[in-house]
């Protein structure tokens, strides 16, 4: 049985079906094994298809809400600090520097003019 990657504990009548003692069941162990494997394979295929559909639906919902910011030359942007300073509590540390003007735009990346200790340099940021 398929359930969150674990074996489900169910009554034997649910797993194997109801057994009527008046009926003569002439099924061999080999046939039972083949039928059980086929049922499990069909169940597995069905679950995989449903998971694929669910993943596609989730991606569509996510992509509808997704958008990329398009910066133009002259726009002011904030720059994220990715490193930490030793001895400073991260809650009290500034998360962003800026604002910095966009000085150049090339296809998918932009250049920012930043000055640290009176030295100008450019940072290239990919926007998508």
Structure description:
- The chain is an alpha+beta fold.
- The chain has two domains: 47 residues; 51 residues, no CATH class.
- It is 33% helix and 25% strand.
- It has two helices and four strands.
- Strand 2 and strand 3 form a beta hairpin.
- The protein is elongated and about 85 Å long.
- The mean pLDDT is 74.
Assembly type of the chains comes to: single chain
Tell how many strands the DSSP assignment holds.
Answer: 4
Query: How large is the count of helical segments?
Result: 2
Radius of gyration equals 31 Å
Helix content: 25-40%
Give the overall shape: elongated
Taken as a percent bin, the fraction of beta residues is 25-35%
Order of helices and strands: HHEEEE
Question: End-to-end span in angstroms?
Answer: 42 Å
For the largest beta-sheet, the strand count, sense and barrel status come to: 4 strands, antiparallel
Classification by helices and strands: alpha+beta
What value does the average pLDDT take?
Answer: 74
Name the poorly predicted regions.
none
* Order of adjacent strands in the largest pleated sheet: 1-2-3-4
Taken together, the total number of domains comes to: 2
